[in-house]
Amino acid sequence: MAKITTSKLLKMKQQGEKISTITAYDASFAKIFDQAGIHAILIGDSLGMVLQGQDDTLPVSIEDMAYHTQCVRRGVENTLVISDMPFMTYATTEQAYTNATKLMQAGASMVKMEGGAWLVDTIKGLVERGIPVCAHLGLTPQSVHVFGGFKVHGKTQEQANKMIENAKALEAAGAQMLVLECVPTPLGKAVSERLSIPVIGIGAGVHTDGQILVMHDMFGVSANYMPKFSKNYLAETGDLRKAVTLYIEQVKNGLFPGPEHSFDK
Ligand code: KIV
């Protein structure tokens, strides 16, 4: 497989080819995913929950993210490496510049941040300074305490319209990818159709341009619980490498996520 770049992912969207992505936090798993042909690896701040055993992602620090980004980078040859900006490390544009630099210097090729139109100036500034950005809308776990729990977003027409507006503003600011988490399938489809950049869904239905799963969910080893939108591919295949290959194949052929992993409304 050739090196995956943001332009390659954009081309895949234009050609209707599905993008498969997954989280990883260390070199060994990153290598398995890279060799299986995963298009992008996210060092998610989900590491707070799946590695550290925290109740949410808020305690994760920029040092944690930089450390795990270095680990993943050492295992990867071709896959695009995206690293999460943790809670309150991009509350101001200046903070975002300082902290995104740490992740890029640790080996990320793109940083991800959660939020809507309030991020427009920050994204514009980062991209102008050479840092590619992946935006994240829908259920943005760093705001779990504002939302009052982990739940489906964009259920009313008004909320859906607002999310589409936010997505367009983030794209116009220069975001080169969007993660869309826990939204009804029709909204996942609408956002993907309205944007030119790849939209990667998690619990956003089958019509997004690609999918992402937290690796611990895909292997059925998450400490807390198995979200409805995930699938235990290890249980189905009995082998780590076969599990990843089957996930990539099912994303490619539109077989994952099925209706049982999606939200109708
Ligand atoms: O932190 C993470 O793993 C994420 C994914 C769930 C998209 O943001």
Written account of the structure:
With 265 residues, the chain is α/β, with parallel strands linked by helices. The protein contains twelve helices and eight strands. The protein has an eight-stranded parallel beta barrel, surrounded by eight helices. Helix 2 packs across helix 4 (62-75) and helix 5 (93-106) packs across helix 6 (120-128). The longest helix is centred in the middle third of the chain and has 17 residues, at 157-173. The protein starts with 5 loop residues before the first helix and ends in a 13-residue tail after the last helix. The mean pLDDT is 96. The structure holds 3-methyl-2-oxobutanoic acid. 3-methyl-2-oxobutanoic acid is lined by residues 23, 42, 44-46, 84, 179, 181, 202, 212, 214.
The biggest beta sheet reads:
8 strands, parallel, barrel
Kindly name the structural category: alpha/beta
Q: Measured on Cα atoms, how large is the radius of gyration?
A: 17 Å
Number of strands: 8
Shape: globular
Low-confidence runs: none
How much is the average pLDDT?
Answer: 96
Order of helices and strands: HEHEHHEHEHEHHEHEEHHH
Question: How much of the sequence is in beta strands?
Answer: 5-15%
Strand order of the largest sheet: 1-2-3-4-5-6-7-8
Molecules bound to protein: 3-methyl-2-oxobutanoic acid
Percent helix range: 40-55%
DSSP summary: helix tally: 12
- Calculate the terminal CA-CA distance, rounded to whole Å: 38 Å
The gist of it:
The protein has helices spanning 6-14, 27-36, 47-50, 62-75, 93-106, 120-128, 144-147, 157-173, 185-194, 215-218, 233-237, 240-252; strands at 19-23, 40-43, 80-84, 110-114, 133-138, 177-181, 199-202, 210-213. The protein has 265 residues and is an alpha/beta fold.
